[in-house]
Amino acid sequence: MQTYKQELTVTKDHLDHLNHVNNIEYVRWVQDIAEAHWNSKTTEDIRNTYYWVLLSHHIQYKAEALLGDALLLKTYAVKSGAVRSTRTVNIYNKSTNKLLSTSETIWCFMSHKTNRPVRIPDELTHLFS
């Protein structure tokens, strides 16, 4: 499995009323890194032909992130079926290597032409395995 990584720093805009990262930010980061991973591995032609929709999302919050924390996000595809793919995203405090959250998302592969699920081509499955 190929791991895709991103780094970010917690800003004031990420915080909630308790002064730690708002849960919705973790969800946004999970979605954003999945999209970035897809974009890094595919051509514009592929992206104009296919897209993904989120079917299921499960996230576990293990520790808080605070203003100024440097975070490391890691994602990889766990498994792929005919039209679905399961992805894991782990978010760490970069300086302590502490796991802050882990998520598993299930995505459905779609055709832009039909807006219906379509079988994931083998060449795309191999890009992420």
TrEMBL record:
- Give the species this sequence originates from: Psychroserpens luteus
Q: Which family does it belong to?
A: Belongs to the 4-hydroxybenzoyl-CoA thioesterase family.
Q: Which InterPro entries match?
A: 4-hydroxybenzoyl-CoA_TE, HotDog_dom_sf
**Pfam families tied to this protein:** 4HBT_2 (PF13279)
Q: At the top level of its lineage, which domain of life is listed?
A: Bacteria
Query: What EC number(s) is this enzyme filed under?
Result: 3.1.2.-
Top EC class, one word: hydrolase
Q: Which GO terms describe its molecular function?
A: hydrolase activity
The answer, when asked if Hydrolase is one of the entry's keywords, is yes
Keyword terms, alphabetized? Hydrolase
Protein name, please? Acyl-CoA thioesterase
